[in-house]
């Protein structure tokens, strides 16, 4: 059951960063971690980092219990998964719904919560549109 009333994730707590801190900040860059197999992406990004005009990171990913985690972790290096491919962290201004909003200021952030798993959704609003970030079956989903 989704609600706008804050509920903490039983495993991850409320998160290290209040997503409302994005409000009023300009998104300067977007980085994403992609799972690649045979040089082809196997789906959407695993993680997203929004870099604001102050150089701060807003890291968005999913938790093992399907919650949506928001923290200030810096991007990590990619890594090899052997036969399962690799994870690469790259600038993704053109590979995510955030592409059209690079350079824009975040006007508002709306959150959705599940009473069992905590945060499950974010809508990051700009003057020309918005991006929805969600956790669905443990995967990060972005739409905009």
Work out the number of β strands.
Answer: 12
What sort of overall outline do the alpha carbons produce when their principal axes are compared?
globular
Number of helices: 0
CA radius of gyration is: 15 Å
* Helix-strand makeup class: mainly beta
Write a structural description.
- With 144 residues, the protein is mainly beta.
- The protein has one domain.
- It contains no helices and 12 strands.
- Strands 2, 3, 4, 5, 6, 7 and 8 form a 7-stranded antiparallel beta sheet that branches.
- The chain is globular, with a radius of gyration of 15 Å.
- The chain starts with a strand and ends with a strand.
- The mean pLDDT is 87.
Secondary structure elements and their pairing?
Elements: E1 2-3, E2 27-37, E3 40-41, E4 47-52, E5 57-62, E6 68-71, E7 79-80, E8 86-91, E9 108-114, E10 118-126, E11 129-136, E12 139-143
Antiparallel strand pairs: 1-9, 2-3, 2-4, 2-8, 4-5, 5-6, 7-8, 9-10, 10-11, 11-12
Question: What descriptors fit this protein?
Answer:
single chain, about 140 residues, 7-stranded antiparallel beta sheet, 5-stranded antiparallel beta sheet, mainly beta
Summarize the entry for a quick read.
By secondary structure, this protein is mainly beta.
């Amino acid at each position: 059951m989704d609600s706008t009333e804050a509920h903490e994730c039983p495993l991850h707590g409320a998160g290290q960063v209040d997503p409302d801190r994005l409000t009023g900040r300009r998104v300067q860059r977007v980085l994403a971690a992609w799972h690649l197999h045979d040089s082809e992406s196997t789906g959407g990004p695993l993680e997203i980092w929004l870099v604001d005009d102050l150089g701060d990171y807003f890291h968005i990913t999913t938790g093992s219990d399907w919650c949506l985690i928001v923290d200030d972790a810096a991007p990590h290096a990619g890594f090899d998964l052997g036969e399962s491919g690799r994870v690469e962290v790259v600038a993704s201004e053109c590979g995510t719904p955030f592409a059209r909003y690079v350079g824009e200021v975040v006007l508002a952030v709306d959150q959705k919560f599940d009473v069992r798993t905590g945060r499950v959704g974010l809508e990051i609003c700009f003057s020309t549109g918005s991006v929805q970030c969600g956790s669905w079956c443990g995967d990060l989903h972005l739409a905009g």
